[in-house]
Amino acid sequence: MRIPGYDRSQGLAGMLGGRGMIILIIAVGLVIWWFSSQQTGITGRSQTITTSIDDENRMGLEAYTQILAEEPVLCARGATSCALEDTREVERIRAIGRRLQAAAAAWEAEGAVMTVEGKSDGALPSWGALTDTFNWQFNVIDADTPNAFALPGGFVAIYKGLLPVAANDDGLAAVMGHEIGHALARHGGERMSQQQIMSFGQVAVGLAFGDMGYDTQRMVMGAFGLGAELGVLKPFSRAHESEADLIGLELMVRACFDPRETPRLWRRMAELGEGGRPPEVLSTHPDPEARALKFEELMPSALAAYERHCGQKLN
Asked: Per residue in 80-107, pLDDT tens?
């Protein structure tokens, strides 16, 4: 059967035309790049990471330095005065951070076993241990935002507004362990790699449809951007959050913090955004109540892991 307008002598290029060939070439390049960048992460999940650990740590330090320069850091280095209460708060958070840091190092040394899932065997990710490459820092930002973050390289910050929500040392350990989990799982590098791939995809779409009218181009590019956001980036963000939850729980029990505080923490988090959260499909984070329920499911094995690591039972 003859396809109108298609000359067999031109091969696939003749069938697809110039626009189709551009899409094909870029798509093949992206597929090759994607599979050549696959690495096995901490939880066994396949991750596409095109950045190096050194680059991620360097960018983490640069971002952290900039944030601390722009935000009011509690008892900052070089400060002429610091209230006794603030000094104690900073030291408390740094002490929690040091316990989690030590737990992370011990966990990686044992092969990153997820004992909170009842497992007895583990495997380090493709990139090996990270804790000895981190320049760990823990700081408190004097702002009312209930937030915290950890950047690649072990750069951690807690906002003062989170302290009432965390409520106690165990709640703070839950938050900080979760944030450190992001850094250990290299979610920052994975996210940058995803953004690179999405950018190349947008370039491909732009080249392929460049001869169309402005309104059509805008509609096509908008549809591509929405599809990438809902189909790739947001689901990956939610997967990152769930993975960091699991790693954070593991670090908590190894550092001998009470894991029972995790579902309580997320229910307090849920109260903060009561009625103001978007549908989960539009959110980068899982629903707080769903997270609390997941932690409750893990609690029997988490408590057993606590007992093994800490040599005692919780009352």
From this structure: 678 888 999 999 999 999 999 999 999 9
pLDDT of residue 225: 46
Q: How far is CA 99 from CA 130, 136, 144, 162, in A?
A: 16, 12, 25, 19
CB 125 within 8 A of CB 42: yes
Give 292's contacts (C-beta < 8 A, 6+ positions apart).
262, 263, 264, 266, 267, 270
Look at residue 149 and give its three-state secondary structure. strand
177 with 101: CB under 8 angstroms? no
Q: What are phi and psi of 151, to 5 degrees?
A: -100, 160
Active-site annotation holds for 91 = no
Longest distance between any two alpha carbons in the chain, whole Å = 86
- What's the whole-number average pLDDT of the chain? 79
Cα-to-chain-centroid distance, residue 117? 20
Distance CA 185, CA 19 (A): 39
pLDDT of 146 > 70? The answer is yes
Please identify which of the residues 89, 179, 190, 250 carries the catalytic annotation. 179
Residue 46 has pLDDT above 50, yes or no: yes
Mean pLDDT of 224-232: 42
- Which has the closest alpha carbon to 303: 249, 229, 243? 249
